[in-house]
Design a protein that fits this description.
Cytochrome Bc1 Complex, Chain D, domain 2, Immunoglobulin-like, rod-shaped, binds heme C, binds copper (II) ion
C-alpha cells in the first residue's frame, strides 16, 4: 500500500454514480387528500408522510373527542355533587353543609339553654309544668309548647326577647328575665353566635335526635347508667298545625293564661263575688318571690263559700297568682287565676269546701310562695 490503488470499477468513480437511485415521483392517489394537483406537487409529500399525517390527525381528533367527553362528564358529575343527584340519591353539598352546621348549632344551643335558661324555664322548657316545678320553682313561662312554638316563638321574636330581655314579652319593666345578648342595653352575657345557637335549639324539630356534647371538649357525653351516648330531641313538632278556628297565640303569654285556661284555672266559669261571704286575705309583699305569701296559714269554715282577696303589693319580683289545691292536689275552681303584676288586688270566689287541709300556692313561685289552708 505504498502508492495509488485504483478504485474498483462501479464504486462511484463519478459523483453522479454515488447518488442513490432516484425514487420515482409517486402519484398521490389517496382520495382523501384530493387537494389541487398544484398543491400536491409543491407539498411533495411521500405516501408515508401522508399516511403519517392521516394517523396523526385521527389521533388528534380522538384526543379532542375524549377531552370533550371527559369535561362533559366532569360537569355533569360536579353538577350533581353541588346540587344533589335526582331521586334523592344525594343531597346538595351546600345543603349537607347547612344541615351539619344546624346540628352543631342545636347541640351547642342545648348546652347554653341548660346552663343559662333551665333554672327558670325548666330543663324541658315546661316552666311551671315541669314534673319537679313544685320544688324547683321555675319562674319562667313554658316555652316547650306547640302552640307557642308554631308561630309565637319565631326566630325574630326570640332574638328580640333575648336582646331586649323579659320586658319585651309583656312590657313588664321589672321582668325577672334579664337581657341575654351582648348587643342589648345593658349588654347581656351571650354573643351573637350563642344567641343563634340558642334559637336553633329552641326551634329544633322533635323528630330528630341530637347528641349531647360536652361544652368544653365537644366530646359526646356518655350516660353512665346505660353506657350509651346521651341524646336529646328538639321541642317543635314540624307537622303541628293549630286548629283552623284557633285564635293566634297572644303577644303576651299572660293573656293566654287568662280565662281559666292557665295552670290551676281548670276552665271553671268565674263565680261572681258574694258581698256577704266571709273574706280571707293573702298578701304578697315586695320581694314575695323569695319571702312568700303573708300569712302562710289561712283558716276557713267548712261548707261555707268565702271570698279570697289576693293583695299583690309586689312591684319588683314579677307576676304572681294564687291557686288552692284540695288534699288530693286537685285545684279548687275559683275563677280566673292567671298571673298578674303588682301592685294590684284580685278577689276570687272560693266555693264551700269540705273540712281538711288544703294548700295554696303561686304557680310562678311554687317553692317559696306557698302555704296551707285549714278548713274546719
Ligand atoms: C331569672 C329567670 C329566667 C332566666 C334565667 C331565663 N328566663 Fe326567659 N323568661 C323569664 C320570665 C319571668 C319570662 C316572662 C317575662 C315576663 O313576664 O316579664 C321569660 C320569658 C321568656 C321568653 C318569652 C316567652 C313567651 O311566651 O313569649 C323566652 C323566649 C325566654 N324567656 C327565653 C329564655 C332563654 C332562651 C333563656 C336562657 C338564655 C331564658 N329565657 C332565661 C325568666 C327567665
Ligand atoms: Cu309568685
Amino acid at each position: 500500500m505504498t502508492d495509488h490503488t485504483p478504485t474498483p470499477p462501479g464504486a462511484g468513480d463519478t459523483p453522479d454514480e454515488r447518488l442513490p437511485a432516484t425514487v420515482p415521483q409517486p402519484s398521490l392517489t389517496a382520495e382523501r387528500f384530493s387537494a389541487s394537483p398544484s398543491v400536491k406537487a409543491t407539498a411533495g409529500l411521500t405516501p408515508q408522510r401522508s399516511a403519517g399525517i392521516v394517523r396523526q390527525s385521527a389521533a388528534a381528533r380522538w384526543v379532542g373527542f375524549l377531552t370533550v367527553i371527559f369535561v362533559s362528564l366532569f360537569i355533569v358529575g360536579y353538577w350533581f355533587y353541588e346540587l344533589g343527584a335526582p331521586a334523592g340519591i344525594s343531597t346538595a353539598r351546600l345543603q349537607t353543609e347547612i344541615e351539619r352546621q344546624q346540628v352543631v348549632d342545636v347541640q351547642r344551643g342545648y348546652n347554653l339553654y341548660q346552663a343559662n335558661c333551665a333554672r327558670c324555664h325548666g330543663p324541658n322548657g315546661l316552666g311551671p309544668n315541669e314534673p319537679d316545678a313544685a320544688t324547683a320553682g321555675y319562674i319562667g313561662p313554658q316555652l316547650n309548647d306547640q302552640v307557642k312554638l308554631f308561630a309565637h316563638l319565631s326566630e325574630a321574636y326570640l332574638e328580640n326577647v333575648l336582646t331586649v330581655g323579659g320586658r319585651y314579652v309583656c312590657g313588664n319593666a321589672k321582668s325577672a328575665m334579664p337581657v341575654w345578648a351582648d348587643t342589648g342595653n345593658p349588654p347581656g352575657p351571650l354573643n351573637y353566635r350563642q344567641i343563634e345557637e340558642l334559637i336553633a335549639f329552641l326551634r329544633a324539630p322533635n323528630n330528630q335526635e341530637y347528641e349531647v356534647r360536652n361544652p368544653e371538649t365537644n366530646e359526646p357525653v356518655i350516660d353512665p347508667a346505660t353506657g350509651q351516648k346521651k341524646t336529646f330531641r328538639g321541642w317543635r313538632d314540624p307537622n303541628y298545625k293549630p286548629d283552623p278556628g284557633a285564635t293566634p297565640y297572644p303577644a303576651c303569654y299572660l293573656d293566654a293564661l287568662k280565662g281559666g285556661g292557665g295552670p290551676g284555672g281548670s276552665g271553671a266559669p268565674t263565680a261572681s263575688i258574694d258581698a256577704n261571704a266571709p273574706t280571707l286575705t293573702l298578701t304578697a309583699k315586695d320581694g314575695a318571690a323569695s319571702s312568700g305569701f303573708e300569712p302562710k296559714t289561712l283558716e276557713a269554715k267548712a261548707d261555707t263559700a268565702f271570698t279570697l282577696v289576693f293583695d299583690n303589693q309586689d312591684a319588683t319580683t314579677g307576676p304572681h297568682n294564687v291557686v288552692i289545691s284540695d288534699p288530693n292536689k286537685t285545684p279548687v275552681p275559683m275563677g280566673d287565676t292567671s298571673f298578674f303584676s303588682g301592685p294590684a288586688k284580685r278577689s276570687y270566689a272560693v266555693p264551700a269546701l269540705a273540712a281538711g287541709t288544703y294548700s295554696f300556692l303561686c304557680v310562678v313561685h311554687p317553692s317559696t310562695m306557698t302555704g296551707s289552708l285549714e278548713v274546719k
